[in-house]
Specification:
single chain; six-stranded mixed β-sheet; 84 strands; elongated; repeat
């Protein structure tokens, strides 16, 4: 089909006149006029939002401004606005670079005005949004410090004892904080597994606590983020803090006795209340220290215990002899006053052994019984026995059963037995001493005294005497002994031999024996006795009294013991009947000490030192041997060397106490003299002196000895050949050769650096002079140890005994000369983190310097301060934030610390050594980085919504995205994590009424780095009959406490069914579906609107028509600003584009209408022709008037008018304008064309607004948002009929509306010639 015939087959609906294909020719003059003007530059449609990383450095490329000029004019760029402070733009290229550092945490969204100019037209300005992308430039910060807690020691394993919290102002993984325990103090193996930490920062007890092991613990906790990009590298930030844990003791242990075992003693009979001992128990729960009471477990004991102090005392009188055992065993229980944590009594027991010691409080007693059967109940004091007179000695008295007993113990139970009374001498007792218990016998001691003729009965007193008890010592028993008589007695001396003694040199008449008498029981003359000495030579020396029997010295000159020491004589006793008896007198001449001891020999001894000396002093005494007069004793007379020897007092053997030491002898010859006194034991004592001379020969037996145990010297470094010090040694040997000393250094590390020489100071005294080798240089700073540890050897060089060596430690300290510059170690230059907003004033860090010189005084200096934001220079904003004190303390000293202004402060510092003696006194300049950490203080910010959202309910299924919102939060971590929610949905109907809805839309949140997108989706089926716009209120809320929220309201225009258009095709449904994309593209090309196909179905019409339609396509034609085309508007636009019309006809399009199409009548065709001619005439007149006006306007106004004319020529003069509010029949101006309010793509610009453009989406169901025009609310008011005057507004309105003069014209006052 040819193009000239196309109009014959394209029909319109009855509601509007048909438009012929030649109508667009009327606009040709306008198109020609528009082509001759110059247009302003146009920004690329993508220039609405850009993204810039916050760690971008100053001078680096940020983003590119892009604009174009349709006329090819040279364009220039510029930027303005408050946020342009951060950027520079290249006016020619549009390349934007960073001028000042960015900080997302302080300002995540920037807005600048970008301007482009071609130098001809007015500048074009657009608002550009810049989103600052986050980087991991913040470390986690612990909150609510310090961390301290107290934990009961019986806390259940697995319990959470504390929760720490740290947050990170970054976003994404860089804001996710994880925790770990780095160290447990005290650092023991058991403590390592005592705790673990959960991901939320909760510290959990992993094993049981024990107060006796740990009373206080500290955990070093590390918080680190999940890592993120920083300057194109993945960086993990971390920080540490300490959790202090005090372990609280609980009563879970029994008390414990101290100093076990316990034992004590107390004497019997002691006063009640006497202290025996004190037991002490302590509560092992030292943190509880409960009160302890004491008690006895065993009852009926003669002791008491103080329940508070634990002192055991005597509670009743003690009698050891009445106790079952002298050892009393006490069981003591210690109880705590309170129950333990298990509800039990906390107690402990111990045994106390008390020994009741014996006191001599019992005297011995006598009992009449045998020892084996005696019960010791009844004592006895009278006993009777018998014996034959003159019985021999040791014969016991018969018929006596005597047992003696003392119940005391040991020595207290020991007692003596003896006899008293007139007859006591005739008898003796056996035994004379008894310990405890024993049988007692009375024995004959003097048979002659046991004489019946003297007495028939003899009585003795048996005494038992306890010598240890003077107050109640004795018991007495009377023993009666009956004598049995014998026949005939001769005079008889009591002794057959009398041993007498007389002192030599005694004078004459000296009584030797006073009464030596014989006994004769006979009476009368037969009982009278006379005495005489029988030998004549004895009678010359001695004599006897014939009556008394007394023996005397007759001539004392004969008495000399040394001449004769013994005389024997017979003494005769003769009674009156000449009955005789004799006795032997043995007279011993007693020695008188009249002779001095006599020394035998002389004593000169020679010995080498180191040997012992032994000798015996020999002497005699002529006095009587075996007597004190001749018994000799030996002693050393006190003298110079007397203490070096001992002598046997009896034998005279003298020994040296230790080997002799020549060095201890003062004599030059080595002689020592010891004087020994030899004495007898007579009275008066006589003695003789003798000298023992000992010569000691010297032996080299002494090794050198240093005068000090160690020496310590100090020298300065670099002092070659200097004197170090003297070491002194002595040798005690007495000869010069044996006492000679030489010094040398023992080979060791550093010994080769020194020299030593020997000097004799005197006998046995030498000095070792130690000096530094002149060829050796000592550098203090290169030495690992600042000293030399030397060993000096002192050797005795005696020829016969060389090799005796002594050693001494010599410590040589190397003193530093201050010649090294100080340094600041890298460990002290680690980055410091400080929170913004003055939350961390005061000391934040301490810089430490190192100076290898020992004597130094270091002072820190701050040389310069550099402020950075995101790695770029931030000027001088931070110069007064921090102060570095001379001692290295770094103080936060400003209330203006602001992370948003500066996130990094770099201090250039150095340290000065005030004591420097030579060399450089300053360290190298170092940089200390201080990182400012952010605080969560920002609410989410919505990005501007620059488009209009439209929804076609009929073809909007559930989950269809109908709008989007974007927001960002300057905070990081959970504080910057945004969750969208729909707060309310309200439909604003065409009459202004508002109708709320629930669950009509939903929002799905997604994240792209720091930007969050909320996808507004259909949640339930929409009502396609509703007209108006949905006002959807969306809230963006962050996820950290305290939460911040921001709301925004979206307008979603709804297109109702009244805008559904039917397109009839001569092709089948299948062919239409196969050609759908081509059809859609053709319709979009003609209308610049989104084509929404709701259905394609077959069409059956029995009416006769010129063409037979086989299928129908139902569709909506919607612009991105919410306006839609009706049938008339669609028909006009298709007719206005002949190529598109031809293409659609080739694809089978025949009819456009909302319903069925009927064949028009000839009358209606004529009316259409006449109306077309009338409209052409009116349009021609208006064009002529408009051309005249534009001619007298400026070049720029002409250009605008021609563009409007160009757009106007695309419209048919008979088109009725559609709705201005989407989905309604409300117009911007009654019968005004809503198409005039569109913002079109520049390639299809109708010229009604120079700065507004819009593109209709080819697939608007996928993307339903476009840029909104800056002026989208055009006000219209009803106009008057077209007047005859030539005002600009009327002419332009007529040109735009293209109305017939006879009809009412409605103009859109939103446009006038001034706008054009």
């Amino acid at each position: 089909m040819e193009a000239r015939d196309m109009h014959q087959f394209l029909f319109c609906v009855p509601q509007a006149p048909c438009r012929m294909a030649w109508h667009p020719l009327l606009l040709l003059p306008f198109l020609l006029a528009a082509a001759s003007g110059n247009t302003a530059p146009i920004f690329n449609t993508t220039m609405t939002i850009v993204y810039v990383a916050e760690d971008l450095q100053i001078g680096e490329f940020a983003f590119q401004l892009t604009a174009y000029d349709l006329d090819g004019d040279k364009i220039t760029y510029s930027i303005s606005g408050a946020d342009s402070f951060y950027f520079d733009v290249n006016a020619q290229t549009g390349e934007v670079t960073l001028k000042n550092l960015l900080d997302r945490e302080s300002q995540a969204r920037l807005t600048i005005l970008v301007t482009v100019s071609d130098g001809i037209n007015e500048e074009v300005t657009r608002r550009l949004t810049i989103i600052v992308e986050d980087r991991n430039d913040n470390a986690p910060v612990f909150r609510n410090l310090p961390y301290e807690t107290s934990v009961l020691e019986n806390t259940t394993v697995g319990s959470i004892i504390y929760t720490v919290f740290a947050d990170d102002s970054d976003t994404g993984t860089a804001a996710k904080v994880s925790y770990s325990i780095q160290e447990v103090i005290p650092d023991t193996t058991k403590n390592h597994g005592l705790f673990y930490i959960l991901p939320n920062g909760s510290v959990v007890l992993n094993s049981s606590l024990d107060y006796t092991i740990n009373t206080f613990l500290q955990l070093k906790i590390l918080a680190q983020d999940g890592g993120g990009l920083l300057r194109n590298e993945t960086v993990i930030q971390s920080s540490t803090t300490y959790l202090s844990i005090t372990v609280i003791d609980v009563p879970n242990l029994n008390p414990r006795f101290l100093n076990e075992p316990y034992s004590g003693s107390v004497p019997e009979g002691c006063p009640v209340g006497t202290t025996v001992l004190t037991v002490t128990a302590m509560d092992r729960d030292t943190g509880v220290n409960d009160k302890i009471s004491y008690s006895f477990t065993n009852a009926s004991v003669p002791f008491a215990i103080n329940d508070t102090t634990g002192t055991i005392t005597v509670s009743q009188m003690l009698d050891r002899e009445q106790l079952l055992s002298e050892e009393v065993l006490l069981e003591v229980t210690a109880r705590e006053s309170n129950l333990d944590i298990y509800g039990n009594v906390a107690q402990a027991s111990t045994l106390v052994t008390v020994l009741v010691t014996d006191v001599n409080d019992n005297k011995p007693q006598f009992y009449q019984c045998s020892l084996s059967t005696c019960d010791f109940i009844y004592t006895q004091s009278n006993f009777t026995g018998s014996i034959i007179e003159h019985s021999p000695s040791k014969v016991p008295v018969s018929n006596l059963n005597i047992v003696a007993r003392d119940p005391d113990k040991g020595i207290n139970g020991t007692f003596e037995l003896y006899l008293q009374g007139a007859s006591a001498s005739a008898f003796t007792v056996s035994p004379t001493r008894i310990v405890g218990t024993g049988e007692v016998q009375i024995l004959v001691q003097d048979p002659s005294a046991v004489d019946y003729e003297i007495t028939h009965v003899m009585v003795v007193q048996l005494i038992a005497n306890d010598t240890g008890n003077p107050t109640d010592c004795c018991s007495t028993a009377t023993v009666t002994i009956d004598l049995i008589d014998t026949n005939d007695h001769f005079p008889e001396f009591p002794q057959s031999t009398y041993s007498l003694s007389v002192m030599e040199n005694s004078p004459d008449g000296t009584i030797i024996a006073t009464n030596i008498t014989a006994y004769d029981p006979d009476s009368g003359a037969g009982g009278q006795i006379t005495y005489q000495l029988l030998q004549e030579y004895i009678q010359q020396i001695f004599m006897v009294n014939a009556t008394t029997g007394a023996v005397l010295v007759r001539n004392g000159s004969f008495l000399d013991r040394e001449m004769r020491s013994m005389y024997s004589a017979n003494l005769q006793a003769k009674d009156g009947g000449n009955m005789m008896s004799t006795t032997m007198l043995e007279i011993t001449v007693l020695d008188e000490n009249d002779n001095e001891p006599i020394i035998i020999g002389s004593y000169f001894i020679y010995v080498e030192e180191g040997q012992n000396v032994s000798t015996q002093i020999r002497a005699i005494d002529n006095d009587e041997e075996g007597t004190p007069n001749s018994e000799l004793g030996f002693k050393i007379v006190p003298g110079l060397y007397s203490n070096n020897f001992t002598i046997n007092q009896i034998t005279g053997e003298m020994h040296s106490i230790e080997p002799l030491d020549r060095e201890a002898v003062d004599s030059e010859e080595g002689q020592l003299v010891v004087t020994v006194e030899v004495y007898d034991h007579g009275v008066p004592q006589l003695s003789t002196m003798v000298n023992v001379t000992i010569t000691v020969a010297d032996v080299n037996d002494n090794m050198p000895v240093f005068l000090q145990q160690s020496y310590e010297f100090s020298i300065f470094e670099s002092s070659e050949g200097s004197f170090v010090g003297d070491v002194m040694a002595t040798d005690a040997d007495r000869t010069e050769i044996n006492s000679r000393i030489s010094f040398q250094l023992e080979r060791s590390t550093g010994s080769s650096n020194f020299l030593i020489s020997s000097t004799r100071l005197g006998p046995g005294n030498y000095s070792g002079r130690l000096s530094l080798d002149p060829d050796v240089t000592v550098d203090y700073d290169t030495m690992q140890d600042k000293f030399f540890s030397l060993v000096v050897l002192a050797e005795n060089t005696a020829a016969d005994n060389a090799g005796k060596i002594a050693n001494v430690s010599v410590l040589v300290n190397i003193l530093d000369v201050n010649d090294e510059p100080p340094t600041i170690p890298s460990s002290s230059q680690k980055s410091v983190s400080v929170s913004e907003n003055s939350t961390q004033l005061g000391l934040v860090h301490t810089v430490v310097a190192f100076d290898p010189d020992t004597n130094h005084s270091l002072v820190f200096e701050e040389l310069s301060v550099a402020c950075f934001k995101g790695g770029s220079n931030a000027g001088e904003v931070c110069w007064d934030w921090f102060v570095l004190l001379p001692n290295g303390s770094l103080l936060a000293d400003s209330l203006d610390i602001d992370y948003e202004l500066c996130d990094e402060v770099r201090l250039t510092i150095r340290v000065e050594d005030l004591y420097t003696q030579k060399g450089d006194r300053y360290s190298k300049n170092e940089t200390l980085e201080i990182w400012i950490t952010d605080i969560n203080d920002n609410a989410p910010i919505f990005f501007p919504v620059s488009g209009t959202f439209v929804i076609v309910p009929e073809i909007s299924p559930v989950d269809l995205q109908v709008a989007t919102v974007k927001a960002t939060d300057a905070d990081s971590g959970l504080g910057g994590t945004i969750v969208f929610s729909i707060i309310s949905v309200v439909l604003v109907q065409e009459d202004g009424a508002k109708r709320p809805f629930d669950n009509l839309f939903k929002v799905v949140t997604s994240a792209d780095q720091d930007n969050y997108t909320g996808s507004i989706q259909v949640a339930s089926n929409l009502d396609s009959s509703l007209k108006g716009q949905y006002q959807v209120t969306v809230e963006a809320r962050d996820s950290a406490a305290p939460q911040h929220a921001t709301q925004t309201t979206l307008n979603i225009f709804t297109v109702d069914q009244s805008y559904r258009i039917h397109l009839q095709f001569t092709t089948t449904v299948d062919e239409v579906q196969s050609n759908l994309e081509s059809i859609r593209m053709a319709l979009t090309s003609a209308t610049k609107a989104g084509v929404y196909v709701s259905a394609i179905r077959s069409y059956d019409d029995s009416r006769a028509t010129q063409v037979k339609a086989k299928s129908v396509m139902e569709a909506y034609f919607v612009y991105s600003n919410g306006t839609a085309l009706d049938v008339n508007q669609l028909t006009l636009l298709i007719h206005s584009d002949p190529p598109v019309l031809a293409n659609l006809m080739n694809l089978g399009l025949v009819i456009i209408g909302p319903g069925e199409v009927t064949e028009p009548s000839k009358e209606k065709e004529m009316i259409g022709v006449i109306a077309g001619l009338a409209a052409f005439l009116v349009l021609f007149i208006l064009i002529m008037i408009l051309a005249l006006v534009l001619t007298i306007r400026s070049y720029k106004r002409k250009l605008s008018a021609m563009k409007a004319l160009k757009a106007a020529t695309t419209l048919s003069p008979a088109v009725v304008q559609g709705a201005g509010i989407p989905g309604t029949n409300k117009y911007n101006a009654e019968r005004a064309n809503p198409m005039l309010n569109l913002s079109l793509d520049p390639s299809h610009d109708l010229g009604f607004h120079e700065e507004t453009s819009s593109l209709a989406s080819i697939n608007s169901l996928d993307e339903n948002k476009v840029d909104s025009p800056k002026e989208d609310n055009f006000k219209a008011k009803r106009g008057s009929p077209h007047p005859t005057d030539s005002t600009e507004d009327e002419v332009l309105a007529a040109a735009l509306n293209m109305k017939e003069p006879s009809k009412m014209a409605y103009i859109n006052t939103a446009f006038n010639t001034t706008d054009l």
